[in-house]
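Annotators were shown the component list below and the corresponding predicted structure, then asked to write short factual statements about the assembly.
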Amino acid sequence: MSEFATRAVHAGLEPDPAFGSVIPAIHQTSTYAQPAPGEFVGDFDYARSANPTRAALERALGELESGQASAFASGMAATHALMTAVARTGAHVVLPDDLYGGTYRLVDKVLARWGLRYDLVDQTDLDAVSAALRPDTALVWVETPTNPGLKVVDVEAIVARSGDALVAVDNTFATPVVQRPLELGADAVVHSTTKYLGGHSDTVGGAVIVRSPGLHEEVRFVQNAVGAVPGPLDCFLVHRGLRTLHLRVAAHTENGRAVSEWLRDAPDVSEVRWPGFGGMVSFRHPDAIGIATRTRLFTLAESLGGVESLIEVPQAMTHQSVEGSAAAVAPDLVRLSVGVEAASDLVADLAAAVAGADARALSGSQQHHG
Ligand SMILES: Cc1ncc(COP(=O)(O)O)c(C=O)c1O
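Structure shown to annotators:
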């Protein structure tokens, strides 16, 4: 098998057989002509069930994560499909005690209505994971690094302890450049492709990638039955993003290192976290809201993983749904999605915001607020 960089550039792409275009067409269609009733090419009878642009993206995602992929309309749609494919009424799931707020909301507010039960566990404590497992545990849901606390979880160790429960890993923060959970023994990977895989903050999407053909069929069945499928243009954008993923993650990593090193010595900043790769950095500061409001280059916005830098306060923005639960987030926590701009400009922007300086004094026509 070729190196990751080579696969990232070529995965899922074959020149168009009709015209030879190096990049296949965006198949903006809802249906496909049938020469006779029930006769059609491949899976292509109706575009909720299958679309060639989506199929190309799914081949690419499967190649990069070493499994079989299904693409969804959002990361949450992907998470919903996997959980409903795996868990029956009354089943139990183990969730991390630090996780994306929307994942908690899906389980706590939607799937719990159909009897799904859950426990929140610090998955860096392997004995706590073992203690949380029950005979009816269908799924151990892992997020690593976690959002927003950036805890790193040992996927292989969780797999070794999970017995009959399936292990699914939300690989949105790490990306397959850094971590390929199926190669570590996990059963499923979920992505918000909205983030690093798309990489340019211009599309919303999700993916489930699994090892077993049986589970792939079950996810496919839910995908078609529920219908949370991505449009062809969104699939095209994510697929284009994949081709530079390795380059972007390398650049995010350089900038994540530079920004976190600066933060470690910054006044009144504490608990700086950076997992050692990628662009996700978090820290605590008594004036979290003020800092997030004062930056100019870091846009105040939800989401992450794009080439441009973003700043947010999770407790007030992305994680309101975990308020009052064991996964609640401290109000003084700031989360950065460090982009691929010049590190010196990013550090200068943060320094001005932390100092409470009037950041408008920063020069540059491209600097604006979101
Ligand atoms: C780790 C993680 N998983 C899943 C999601 C949900 O993805 P989407 O917003 O594409 O539905 C997000 C969104 O922020 C996330 O950060």
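Statements collected:
1. The pocket of pyridoxal-5'-phosphate is lined by residues 74-76, 100, 102, 143, 147, 170, 172-173, 192, 194, 204, 206 (CB under 6 Å).
2. Residues 26 and 297 are 34 Å apart (CA to CA).
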